[in-house]
Give the backbone structure.
Amino acid sequence: MFRYRLGSLIALLIGYGAHAQVVVDTLTLPEHEVTASRRSSFAAGTKVQVVDSATMLRYRSSNLGELLANESPVFVKSYGLGSLATTAFRGGSASHTAILWNGFNIGSPMNGQIDLSLIPVHAVGRVELQYGGASTLWGSGAVGGTIHLTNEPGFSRGTQVESGVSMGSFGDRREHVLARWSNARWSGTVGLFQAAAANDLHFRNTALIDAPWQRQRNASFQQAGLITDGHYRINAQQRISLRYWYQESDRQIPATLTEASSTARQVDRSHRISAEWQRLGKRTTAQVRTAYFDEALTWHAFAADAGSFSTASSSITEGELAFSISSAHTIDVGVHNTWSTARAQAYRTAHEQVRTAAFIAYRFNPNSRSRTTLSARQEQVSGTLIPFTWSLGSDYQLSNGVTAKANVAHVYRIPTLNDRYWSPGGNPDLLPENGYSGEVGIAFRSPKEEGRVTLTGEVTVFTRSIHDWIIWLPGPAYWSPQNVMQVWSRGIESHGSVQMRVRDAMVRLDGMTNYVLSTNEVAKSTNDASVGKQLIYVPRYSGNAGLSLVRRHFTSRIGAHYTGYRYTSTDHSEFLEPFVLVDASISCQVIRRSSFTIRAMAQAFNVFAEEYQAVRSRPMPGRSFQVGITVAFDRPFTPKTGPHEYRRPQRP
Amino acid sequence: MNAHRSIILLLLLGQLLFVGCRKDGPERPEDPIANTVSNGVFITNEGNFQWGNAKVSFYDIATATVVEDLYEPANGVGLGDVCQSMRLFNGKAYVVVNNSGKVVVVDQRTFVASATITGFVSPRHFLPVGNDKAYVSDLAANHISVVDLTTNTITGSIACPGWTEEMVLVNGSVFVTNESRSQLYVIDAMTDAMVDSIPVSRGGNSIVEDVEGKLWLACSGGGGTLPALYRIDAETRTVEHMFTFPNGSDNPWRLDINSDRDTLYFLNGDVFRMSVAAIALPTAAFVPADGRNFYGVGVEPTTGILYVSDAIDYVQRGSIARYAPNGSLLNTFLAGTVPGEFVFP
């Protein structure tokens, strides 16, 4: 019960990202208990990382790619400032990370990926990383890990208006305004944002003789969007929610180090709308949710050309019912349907895919110390059954504060529309990728007591083997995707933190290390020398460390992030050098009244001006700065007719 | 609490251990010293589009040693992005670096760059048409660039719609293959003007001249035209024979000829060999691919030994196999990423 309350309190606080109170509490990692979600209820034994509110605040003017690159073990393959950024989670490919927005997979049906540089951090209330395979819960693509982006509603909180502006190096400027209003029954948010940058960064071109300094050209971008949601409590148990997120982005694609010039340009536009009904009863929880996504991309290889245009739409509907048989046994059953269609010049005609799945999950918690979940999913893709998948996981509290975790899962990823229908080469006969993932871990958290040192730590060992891994291979006349690779990924992850009070300040030291081996196990062709070798663009080692200090209204942090060697050829003949990035930030509440707060922040990125490449031949920014100011207005909710509070019952 | 303390200590120690236990780092082999004076072959390695890992390798025939990259050790920086082709002329090598939009002029022996010709859009092939003049074909420019070899600058252009590819000079006329149009263009090398065009299949990619002075052209087809090999009379500029491939998926390319100019080699998945006197396409492969991704062919001038490159998955060092004229495998070695052309001094 305590955990639940604390969890919802923190969810509440996080929901108000830049709200004045947050900073005081920033250094406590939130408990992992949120409202009705399969993640928190039916994913026992998995490692979960919630990006804490202080970090969310620090990255408020950044995109999700930048946040994950520095604050998580996910390797972000970034093509440069503001450019395409995709993930490699526990040694998987970009399409092996499922990215869920309020429970809906927002990966493109065309390539199964999403460009993280197009997701502004301030548009998301909460970022949660679920490590390892979770295909039974989230379907195709939840192989290496799942990233949950959620915007939780808050009720009875009155009116908050927040407006922020920031300016940074390379002509970067961002503005956002966010208004929230809620009473006991209604809750609504409207957010508007825009960002633009020239990105004319100065870099040393190491590919040219004498490595001359050059200014990056054709790199500007602009982005604008609207994010809004509305929630209504029908009664103490039922709620309906509507959400809409519109975004457009227009960016130039700069030349690589070895290209003479570039005039390429990419325009993205997306609409995402969702509706949800949920009933949280004492013994049963019912949810129905539906979403429609529409995205369009225009690529101009040269500024003057007409551009190649592609569009994709998805409609996702899910129904779910969880019920407690007794206090120790809970069952969750659900059905899922995704209809997607896409049109591209290379498809010849529009193609569609219908996926229907049924899933069931069972949770057994005989006492407060242990929790075991078993789940299964059967999916059908355009009329064909794909392998039945299952998952089993368990958490066990060994002693006060020490929890052991273990899980094993059958995971899969279905071929994307590009894999199946790209012309030429698309292969409609592709099988889904499938395999097994497993992990064991131990987590420690010392009890929170005033005036004491608080310690946390977690070590996880994982392994995953994927068969029928899809790779595009050259054929006699064109490339075609085939189910040939077999990839074994395994590794050890650890993270820990020490937090203590030093006089009137709170000091926190945290660190994270990751070791990932992800190797191809079979020869793709006769002379293939990649067998037993690490996949390209998967660092074997990475880690970070940070020191935070909070004193009254003043917060500062310095963080360092290390990325080890990445091979860029499958036989390991070519590679990129390791790099260390050090960032520093300070923020301060300049004015703090009960209803009015002004917060100022300043950040420095890559303080030591490390010259590095995340993707071969793409220059990355050297030292850069950002300053910003946020003005927040808060008028709390005062109930008119006595204490009439809707309390959300605890989940079954 | 003691148990907790030791667990924490273990965790922290564990973190340190994982960082320190294994040396992370690739092997960095030392290349042998290049001996480009000796009898050998230059191999152009395209590398990967936008990765800037193009290389020119050298294989020393007598010692069977390979230098994977001649350019970087000689010049201190990499060659650039996508090495499409190379031509030896007057003691210099003209290296066409496609996606860097340049032709690098290097000394044939030292590989030290003396000039860089810039201003191309997407250069493909370099053809000297006089002692101080050359043509450069282009994927996207819709013209052939005229280059002055004394100043190493572009001095003019010849409008040639489409993606122009390989070129050959016969008696003052330059025949220009075209990947995206169903034409073989003819340019007068004196006047730098297009004088004729010969209708052929689309996808014209490679062209050679045989011992009889006939032109052989490989077209991969497409756009309603068939994959075909053409024999063309260079004087009358007429098609003498069209050897049509049976399937639309056939893709004849990398047409090459031996030094006696009487035997053709080309790729169509496998390597095929064909006499210039043949009246039909060969039915059996000379070297079957057997799971290899053949990407280039070359014929050693004096011995007639065939070189075939396997680009494998395009993301690792390509493998080169040498075959005797009787078809038996002699040896194999590794070059750079995506080996495309063999250039014999």
About this structure: Residues 2-15 of chain A form the longest helix (14 residues). Helices of chain A lie at 2-15, 22-25, 38-42, 53-58, 64-71, 135-138, 417-421. The first strand of chain A starts at residue 48 and ends at 50. Residues 1-34, 642-652 of chain A have pLDDT under 50 and may be disordered.
